[in-house]
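We store chain and fold; example below:
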Amino acid sequence: MEFTAQKIAEMLHGEIEGDPTILVHNISKIEEGKVGTLAFLANPKYENYIYNTKASVVLVNKTFSTEKKIETTLIKVDNAYSAFASLLEIYQQLKGNKQGISPQAFIHESATIGQNVYIEAFAYVGENAIVGNNTKIYGHSYLGDNTQVGSDCTLYAGVKIYEDCVIGNSCIFHAGVVIGSDGFGFAPVDNDYKKIPQIGNVIVEDHVEMGANTTIDRATMGSTVIRKGVKLDNQIQVAHNVEIGENTVIAALTGISGSTKIGKNCMIGGQVGFAGHIQIADEVKIGAQAGVASSIKQKGMILLGTPAIEVRNFQRSSIVFKQLPELLKRVGVIEKKSIKTE
C-alpha cells in the first residue's frame, strides 16, 4: 500500500511542509528512517534525528520549528504521537481487511454467520454459534456450541471460546486466548478431590483486548464478567466468578483468584497476585509484583509490595529495609558491649 503525503495529511487533518506528492509505503523510527517510510517526532530528545533522517515523511507537532534545513517532508499536526497512533490504526485496518470463508473451515449448519466475515482454514464454529458482521476468525480457533461473538472482532490463531460464552463487539483476542475453561473447583472428599461442575459462563463486553495465552475461567454458577474497555496483557489468569470493571488495564502474568471484584479504571502492574473473594475500588493503581490479600475500599489508592500497602508507607518501609544490614551491625555492637558490662 502506498500513500502520498497529501493523502496522509488529509487523513490526519495536518499541514504539509515539503513535497505533497512524495510516496510512502511503510513506517519507521525516525532514527532508522529509510526512503519511502513515514516516521514521527514527538519526544524532543529525538529532535536531532530529523535533520538527517532518510524517512520521506515525518509527523511533527504544529509547534515544531526547524533550526536548519530539512530534506524530508513534514506533516504538522496538533499531537504527533496521537496522530501516529491513528495512522497505525488505519494501516492495521487496511492490512487486515480480509473477507471470505475458507472451505477448510468447519461451520455447523445451525450456526449464524454475519456479513463480511473472514474465517480462515481449520477454524471451528459449533452448533448454534453466532458470529457478527466484519469479524475475523483465524486458523485453529474454536467457537463452542451456543457461543456468541459480536461484530468487528478479531480472533487470532488458536483462540478457544468454550460453549455458552458471550463476546461483545470490537474485541481483539490474541493467539492462545482461552475463554470459558473450567474454574478451579474441587471439594476434598476422603483424601481425594471431587470436581465441582462449572456450569456458568464468561461474558466479555465491547472493546476488550486480551493478550496471548490469557485465560478466563467460566463461573461455577452465573458469569465471569469482563466489562467494556478492559485491556489485558499476555498470560493473565482470571479465575471463576471474577468481575473486572470498565476500562481497567492489567499487565502480564497477573493472577486473579475466584470471586474477586475489581473496579473501574484501575491500573494493575505485572505479576500482581489477588486473593479470592475481595473487592478493589475504582481507580486503584497497584505496582508490579504486589500481593493483594484483602479488599481495597478507598478509591484511587496506590499500592506496592507484598502484602500490598499504600505507596508512601511502602517507600518509608523500603528505606528502613535497605538500612537493615547496618542496623544489624549496630545491634551486634550494642550486644557485645552489654555482655562485657555484665
About this structure: Residues 101-311 form a domain with the UDP N-Acetylglucosamine Acyltransferase; domain 1 fold (CATH 2.160.10.10). Residues 311-341 form the longest helix (31 residues). The two ends are 88 Å apart (CA to CA). The chain has a mean pLDDT of 95.
